[in-house]
Amino acid sequence: MHLDKKQKKHLRGLAHHLKAVIQIGSAGATPMLKAELNQTLEHHELVKVKIRASNRAEREKLLADIVTGTDAALVTRIGNIAVLYRRNKEKPGIEIPGG
User: Which of 50, 68, 88, 97 gives 20 to 30 Å between its CA and that of 2?
Assistant: First the structure.
């Protein structure tokens, strides 16, 4: 899924007040974590994820793994917090510009 600058800006504004509902720890992106994240994205569409990793390279690798594993779009990443978006195909709840 590709988002342009205007769409990402809109989603960042919506995500600003959200709390991280998924936390990735030392176990990494396990199949169970990906299943939970898929379910959360299906329900909420826009999700904040907190990634606890020992260094930046590991954090980037985990983030790339969950983005591809969930077919979500990375809206933004600041430090150890990432915002992911995946449109609900049956009942979209978030309208994005140009989407």
Answer: 50
> Quick one: what percent of the chain has pLDDT higher than 90?
70
The answer to whether position 96 is within a domain reads: no
90 domain residue, yes or no: no
Task: Indicate yes or no: pTM above 0.85.
Answer: yes
34: tokens are 């990906």
Q: Give residue 46's pLDDT.
A: 97
**pLDDT 10s digits, 18-49:** 999 999 887 888 899 999 999 999 999 999 99
